[in-house]
Structure formats: structure tokens, C-alpha cells
């Protein structure tokens, strides 16, 4: 005798319970509801039934067919929902309100040194000025007592724009504008990016930073210059720094000097870093040339002043032990992130 409707119903639900993939559901659908499927097959039992029972039986088969259809559809929907839940659970989570998980950044070593020097000079009454990177020939050279024919220009070849302007070769290029802006007496420092047409190596870069300073007042002398430089350097290096002046030539100062500091590495004994001299050249400086004061509108009968051009890049290299200047402009976080915040 063929399987009864009740038996088939039970068997189907049992099989459905064990099915767990979309292929398994499809197999069940074909097995029970297909043209030659088992539910359809129940109709074969009809022949054995009395005529008055056939209608009711037919309805029951139909109900079973609908129930099977619905049950399979429900399990498929359930499986989809579970699948989606799994995918969501495994998906990487982004919470835009969370703080960034990256390691904290740090300032560039040159910025660090610049700020430090700025603070020291500010505490000594100097104002901090900003100035353009693109300047004209007058400000970069003429106003600094470097006329067109002057050989000092050869040392400062730079990048020229087609309109005749140029990228400033030194922070001294701001001297004239700052004198004109404030007049005398005046104490100002002005850090800035400078450019030169250089072949680069471990000690030379085409782009570097300087910090210029000028102090103009009545009775300013070389001793004032030495005092301010020594105070500033001792603060930066957190120890008493010995300085010495050697004569140096710069058209915009008279007399002009090279200011050296006792070597930080050997303490003045002599080592490869200071070429065994015990001294490091750090900061050219001098008494501002009267022509430069005049060009800046300053009364040279009444006022004198000193100026210095501190190599900020150089200072940062010394302070942080950077051996290759090119690391500083490289944007290479591996080298740059070694420095303190
Ligand atoms: N501007 C000069 C340079 O870059 C450096 C310099 C020398 C600046 C003497 C000064 C100074 O203020 O007095 O080569």
C-alpha cells in the first residue's frame, strides 16, 4: 500500500528539519512537489477510496501541498536572514564617531626648534615676523648692499620666476620691509624657508630654513649681539654654550662675523664632527651696514643695530642628531617620527 498522507507529512517535516542548505531545500521541493513528486503521488491513493471520500481527500492533499510549499519557503527565508546576520557579524565595523586609532603624530624637528627659538627671543622682547617666500631682486639683494655686479650674488643663485621675481635665498630679504614697517628702535626675528640652486648632499639642500634677527636701537654694539646669541643658544641646548666670533664678510653687515659655538659632541676637544677644531660654525652675524639701515629708512646718526642669520635647519640637525639634511625634507615618517613631540 502506498504511503499515507499523514506518514508523508511527518516524513516531509522530518526531512525539512535536517535540511540546511539551499540545495537541500531545492531537492525537497522537487522530491515532494515536483510533477512526479511524492505529494502528487498521493493522488494515486484516490482509486482505493469511496467516491464520497475522494473530494475530502483531494482537499487534504492540496492542503498538504500548500503547507509543504510554505514550509520550504519559510526555511529558505530563515536561512537567508541567518546568512545576512552572519555576514553583518563578520563585517569590519566602522564607527565614524570613534577617535582615530593611528599613533599620535609629532611636529617636524625644524618646527620644534623654530618654536623654541621664537619663545626665547619673544621673552627677550623680540617680535616674530613672517615674510614672503617669493621676493624681488631689490629686497633680496639691492636693499642689502648687494648691487647687481656684486660677486656675493654668485653664492646665492636661486630659482627665478619669469616675471623677474625669485625664491628668497636668505631670510635677510625681509630686513628692509621690517625696518620700514616698524622703524627704530626695533627688535624682531623672522624665520623662513629659503631656496638656493644647490647640488644636494648630506650637508646641502636646495630648500632650508633660517631665522633672521635684527635689533636696532641707540648704542647697540657687538657685545649686545654676543649676549643675545649666547643666551639663546644656552637655552636651546640647555647648557652654557661657549661662543666665539671670527671675521666674516657679508655686504649687509660691517663688521661681519662668523659665530662659532664650542662643539656639542666633543665639548671642544676636537672630533670628526667639528673637523677636530673644537668649534662649529653656526650663525653669521654682524653690525648692520649703514647703507642697509638707510635703505630701511633708519636714521644712521642716531641708531645702530646688529643682525644675525641663524641656520634653523642646521640647528635642528645638531639638536636632534640628524646626520643627513635631506632626511628633513624627505617627508619620510620613519626618520622624522623619531623626534620628540
Ligand atoms: N643672509 C646670510 C646668508 O644666508 C646670512 C647672514 C649673514 C645673515 C650675516 C645676517 C648677517 O643677518 O648679519 O648667507
Descriptors:
341 residues; alpha+beta; BirA Bifunctional Protein, domain 2; seven-stranded mixed β-sheet; two-stranded antiparallel ribbon; 9 strands; binds 3,4-dihydroxyphenylalanine
- How does the major sheet shape up? 7 strands, mixed
- Low-confidence stretches at least 5 residues in length (pLDDT < 50)? none
CATH topology assignment of the largest domain: BirA Bifunctional Protein, domain 2
CATH architecture of the largest domain: 2-Layer Sandwich
Domain count: the total is 2
Q: Span between N and C termini?
A: 89 Å
Strand content bin: 15-25%
The number of strands is 9
Strand order of the largest sheet: 1-4-5-9-8-7-6
Q: Structural class, judged by helices and strands?
A: alpha+beta
